[in-house]
Design goal:
Layout: E1 5-6, H1 8-15, H2 19-26, E2 37-38, E3 47-49, H3 50-58, H4 63-68
Antiparallel strand pairs: 1-3, 2-3
Length: 71
Amino acid sequence: MTRTYLTTEELSKRIKYTPRTIRNQLKDSVLLEGVHYIRPFGGRKILYVWEEIEEEMIKPINIQRLMAGIH
């Protein structure tokens, strides 16, 4: 399977969210390390896996996901 790796800025252009929103609100809440993004060679740089993010975006919302955000 071919994977497309994107920087935060490249992902931002594809999903129409600012890089800041991706870093501060989506990363580690919706986008998970090892699934939606990687840190190549154990470094600080983050590369997002487009195919995994696209799959996540088209998933239907279920009630458990909605309830997880309500406290």
